[in-house]
Specification:
Mean pLDDT: 96
Helix content: 25-40%
Number of strands: 35
Oligomer: single chain
Low-confidence stretches: none
Largest sheet: 16 strands, mixed
Distance between the termini: 21 Å
Radius of gyration: 26 Å
CATH architecture of the domain at 4-252: Distorted Sandwich
């Protein structure tokens, strides 16, 4: 698996690229290619204390100094200081972050990695021709990772080669800093007025102070190799050399249709109780039902991780409530109409890939619960007399709100919800036959009724589907592309017309716009404070994950000839070669207008998953 190499020529260029390492618990280490933290979410140890939730920023950074030169970079009011990026020769991600510095005749190579399944980060140093004192100053905090916050009181208890830190805010959290070479010298200081530029741009809290408990020092005379560990539970230095070989080897062994995205796919898989789940995106999302089910085929099935897929499906099936999958698994919220429908599709995909009928049998009662819940009227959503699903406002994936009001409420019968409902009925019938069940619940009869009623979505004036009926909404949105990719739901002439309209109105190199640019409500820039961003979120912003359903529709409508498959690969190529934002991953969104800058989360599960799944499809 080829590594990523970057040679930033300036601070701005270096901070434009971000890296992230995950530990399988929801915790992570993340920063920029020059090691400067530009987000409140950045840090060398963000620990998940109740995996994958209760995430706390503990170790923000380590500031190194050698031969009078500091390798650190921080933004303070009106200044970038120090300016360690001037000594950075190269940044690599191969597969762990590696910073290569040259200071005079000395060369410093710094690597960062996390121990799998632990809230432990190791920062190792390899020095060639070093002379004099090498000092490492840890900068720490103890706060929820979501926002820059006032510094709590901190106290430390020194160890032989390190220290244990606790805060007055969360005295139950213990941060241990350890070393296998440099001596630890207590020297408590508070560094004031760090600024996080990305948070300022996003209209969020962007200034805070950090605490330094002391420093690690070692006298150099030639070559040296040593490491610093930051951990929430270790009290002795691990065998970091062995661990440094183990984690890269594991990452290099991962398989994916696009190898460079294998590690991105792996990062979303997290522990949840005794099982596993999928984080929706880094840095800030939890494990959401809709996102997890859309992402599961690309992240776990295309990559051959069937046992992990079983555990994720089981985690969400157990949490199902009256046929409704949780919108947010951690908070137990159930305000979603489509998560359960994506669950059925994920189970169908699992069987298609694995042929594991035994596990599908274990999920059969959950599938029946979905069928029963969606077949009848109910609170928030339910089946209507015509077989279609009617739902209340903001229950689909377009659920952004401003001042509590949905930006795009979509109350009524939504085109993609009912396309997924039809697809779910067909999938359940296939699994019913495979399982050789005797009592037919009536999947096919209801599917036929849904199919007949679905023709009402056709908008002959625009040559595509109404986004919502009962009440009619003729907004040209990408949701209809899901229907175009489902064989037999609509006549081929309609499906082709939908594909043509979506291509003309919504397709961009990085995904589909959420609203036609000709609509007066269109917002072409996803930027600014939360109000501005929420207002643009589904009103024109481009979502990469929608390229998966678009490719499905393209292949379903035009067939799988060589030229069509080549066309599909070319459509995906901008996403698989994008060089912006997160390194070796895909972001949550892009601007609707050119230049299409990445935005939202730097690494989004369904963006990565649907590009992997689509690429896998066109390569077969």
């Amino acid at each position: 698996m080829a590594g990523f190499a970057f040679y930033p020529q300036s601070y701005e260029e270096g901070t434009s690229r971000e890296w992230l390492l995950a530990n399988g618990l929801g915790g992570y280490a993340s920063s920029t290619a020059v090691g400067a933290n530009t987000r409140a979410y950045h840090g060398l140890l963000v620990a998940a204390l109740a995996p994958p939730a209760d995430r706390w920023l503990l170790l923000s950074s380590l500031d190194e100094e050698i031969e009078g030169a500091s390798l650190a970079n921080h933004q303070y009011p009106c200044a970038i200081y120090p300016q360690g990026f001037k000594y950075l020769q190269e940044f690599r991600l191969d597969p762990i972050p590696r910073f290569c510095y040259r200071i005079g005749g000395a060369r410093v190579e710094k690597t960062v990695f996390m121990i799998r399944g632990e809230n432990t980060t190791i920062i190792s140093y390899k020095i060639k021709n070093g002379q004099g004192t090498f000092a490492i100053v840890p900068l720490v905090h103890c706060r929820c990772f979501h926002a820059a916050s006032p510094l709590p009181g901190m106290r430390q208890e020194t160890l032989g080669a390190g220290t244990i830190l606790r805060s007055s805010l969360r005295p139950d959290i213990r941060l241990t800093l350890l070393s296998d070479g440099p001596a630890y010298v207590p020297q408590e200081m508070i560094y004031n007025s760090f600024e996080y530029e990305e948070e300022r741009r996003r209209g969020l809290a962007w200034k805070e102070d950090l605490f330094s408990p002391g420093r690690f020092e070692i006298e150099l005379s030639g070559d040296a190799a040593f490491a610093i560990a930051a951990s929430t539970w270790r009290t002795a230095m691990p065998d970091w050399r062995a661990e440094q070989k183990k984690e890269p080897a594991r990452l290099e062994s991962l398989k994916a249709p696009l190898p460079y995205l294998a590690r991105a796919a792996d990062a979303f898989l997290v522990k949840r109780g005794q099982g596993k789940s999928l984080i929706a995106g880094y840095h800030w999302f939890d494990d959401w039902g809709r996102d997890a089910m859309i992402s599961l085929p690309g992240l776990l099935l295309c990559t051959g991780r069937f046992e992990d897929a079983r555990q994720v499906l089981k985690s969400f099936a157990v949490a199902m409530n009256d046929g409704v999958l949780p919108n947010d698994l951690g908070t137990g919220s159930y305000n979603t109409v489509d998560a359960s429908l994506w669950f059925v599709r994920a189970v169908g995909s699992y069987f298609e890939y694995s042929k594991d009928l035994q596990f599908v049998g274990q999920l059969w009662q959950s599938l029946l619960e979905v069928f029963r819940r969606y077949s009848r009227p109910g609170e928030d959503f339910g089946g209507a007399e015509d077989g279609l699903i009617v739902s209340g406002p903001a229950l689909t994936w377009m659920d952004a709100r401003l001042d509590g009001r949905p930006v795009s409420p979509r109350a009524g019968k939504c085109c993609e919800i009912n396309a997924l409902w039809y697809s779910a009925l067909i999938d359940m019938q296939k699994l019913f036959v495979a399982l050789d069940k005797s009592l037919d619940p009536g999947f096919i009869e209801l599917a036929e009724r849904v199919k007949q009623s679905y023709q009402r979505f056709w908008n002959s004036e625009n040559g595509c589907l109404y986004d919502v009926i009962d009440q009619e909404d003729a907004s040209i949105r990408p949701n209809q592309i899901i229907a175009a990719g489902i064989p037999d739901l609509l006549p081929m002439v309609m499906r082709k017309s939908i594909l043509d309209v979506v291509t003309r109105e919504l397709l961009t190199p990085f995904g589909l716009r959420t609203l036609s640019s000709r609509d007066p409500r269109y917002e072409g820039r996803y930027e600014g404070d939360p109000r501005r961003r929420d207002g643009a979120y589904h009103q024109g912003t481009v979502w990469p994950w929608l390229m998966g359903p678009y490719i499905d529709a393209l292949l379903s409508v035009k067939g799988r000839s060589g030229p069509v498959l080549a066309q599909a690969r070319e459509l995906l190529r901008p996403l698989i070669t994008v060089h912006a934002g997160g390194i070796n991953t895909l972001p949550e969104v892009f601007d609707g207008d050119c230049p299409q800058r990445p935005g939202g989360c730097i690494s989004q599960a369904w963006s990565v998953a649907e590009v992997l799944r689509a690429w896998d499809s066109v390569q077969k």
